[in-house]
Amino acid sequence: MPPPRAVPTRPALSSRTLYRLHRLLEPNGLYRFVARVVERHAWLRRPFTRTEESVKRKVFGCRMCGQCALPVTGYACPMTCPKQLRNGPCGGVLPDGGCEVYPGERCVWLIAVERAEAGGHAGDLERLHRPIDQRQWGESSWINYWQGRDDGLWTEPGGRATPVDLGLPVLVTGKGDRER
Amino acid sequence: MIVSGSGLVEALRAGRFVVTAELGPPRGADTDVVRKKGRALRGWVDAVNITDNQGGFVRLSSLAGSLVLLDEGVDPVMQLTARDRNRIALQSDLVSAAALGVRNVLLLSGDHPSYGDHPDAKPVFDLDSTQMVWTARNLRDHGQLLSGRSLDPPPDLHIGAVENPFAPPVGFRARRLAKKVRAGAEYVQTQLVFDVGAFAGWMAEVRDLGLHERAHIIAGIGPIVSPQALEHMRTKVPGVHVPDAVATRLLRAGTEGFTEEALRVCAESIHRIRAIEGVSGIHLMAFGREHLIPEIVDRSGLDRSRFDMNACGSRERSADAG
């Protein structure tokens, strides 16, 4: 089944609540173990993934890309952008902050910037997001996150986009950056 | 074909105040229009952008248009959007362009198909504009595809990006550009500037981040040639901001004097933009009225002797712009 239409969505919970909640969900030995077990058994994986989907759809308008960017976007989901831009708003944002495709909806990146800055996480907005793996649609991002597969999704704030670590699989070469 | 000293790379490297122009390819299987318009612009600009199915309307491709320009001795800037191609097609197009001698590429997300003549098309957006820039730099500097496979020889690309200083969130626009520059953008063409004051404010932020030292900032300029065009620009073109003062001034000129006033506004804007620290040039967008571009260059007082490829070397002057 194709994912639902991408329509900019304002999260149902405050960023403060979500930044707090995140601390409880950070990967640890227990979560890693749970994720491994759940992933291995389809009879566990399916209901787990469905639960994740229904919760995240309600709160974030989640479309199940399987590679969650929420922790570094003020918990506003960039995949609800009709262009699915992971690195910031497009140039077509309307003067009133509306989305160029859905003028009645506020640009989700505007929401993201406001929430990240208000929550003291402005540095997150400087991270470069790598292209996503389109095979992960419909998969549980929690399982991916707890097993550390999301670690390479974005760079450190202000980090340069080198060495070659852009694609999937992640590759590292010894070559230096070409300086201007 | 490219006369030494006439290309965009060379002009930027020499520190000249550059002029680029936009050319929209035709809807039809004929290169004559591009050829004629390109020829008319030769000698007036450093490079000419060929748009990529602009606004989501099917046209001759930007690669085809760029090749025609090369043939006419005009340095092309091939625009490439993420709207219609996945990462396989994008990388292939970048490599193909470089292999055929098209060095300047301008990488952008592109307008959503819902605006074009095929609103029923699948919007691709496999990569976003920043990721495209990053990908292009990896191709060039590391000879590597996104898959990790190597590429031999790597494409020699001059990587460009765009920014709209006027779209919300205005306070984040310079930082967003910083991401593109970190990813590898070497030059940046901006959305049309009608509010020079606001543009100057954005440039101050760009300078604070030091971006003008790592990438060349080229300001978008264009004439609004009729009351209809003004209306269209204000309501139909995403991301274009025409301040009331400019609109009122144009409307006051009446239908007869409208184009004349529009050209005057352009010349004045260029004059003011040249005085802003860190601006490397202007990008002229005339939306089908490319014949107005020489007129705008002429009126803006830019020394165009360097563009004149028929001129002998002695007429080549350095750094014409202050």
TrEMBL record, chain A:
Species assigned in the record: Haloechinothrix alba
InterPro entries: DUF5981 (IPR022026)
Residue stretches making up the Methylene-tetrahydrofolate reductase C-terminal-like domain: 47-134
A Pfam short name: DUF5981
Protein name as catalogued: Methylene-tetrahydrofolate reductase C terminal
From TrEMBL, chain B:
GO CC annotations on file: cytosol
SUPFAM superfamilies noted in UniProt: FAD-linked oxidoreductase (SSF51730)
Pathway note: One-carbon metabolism; tetrahydrofolate interconversion
Pfam families: MTHFR
Record-level Gene Ontology MF annotations: FAD binding; methylenetetrahydrofolate reductase (NADH) activity
Cofactor(s) essential for the protein: FAD
Source organism superkingdom: Bacteria
Gene Ontology biological process terms, A to Z: methionine biosynthetic process; tetrahydrofolate interconversion
Keywords: FAD, Flavoprotein, Oxidoreductase
Catalysed reaction equations from the record: (6S)-5-methyl-5,6,7,8-tetrahydrofolate + NAD(+) = (6R)-5,10-methylene-5,6,7,8-tetrahydrofolate + NADH + H(+)
InterPro entries from the UniProt entry: FAD-linked_oxidoreductase-like, Mehydrof_redctse-like
PANTHER family: METHYLENETETRAHYDROFOLATE REDUCTASE, METHYLENETETRAHYDROFOLATE REDUCTASE (NADPH)
Similarity-based family: Belongs to the methylenetetrahydrofolate reductase family.
Protein name: Methylenetetrahydrofolate reductase
Originating species: Haloechinothrix alba
